[in-house]
Amino acid sequence: MSPKQNPGVDERGDVLTRQKVTRPPLYRVIFHNDDYTTQEFVIRVLMRYFHKARAEATQIMLQVHHQGRGIAGLYPRDIAASKVAQVEGLARENEMPLRLSIEPDGGGS
Question: What global pTM score does this model have?
Answer without folding.
Answer: 0.79
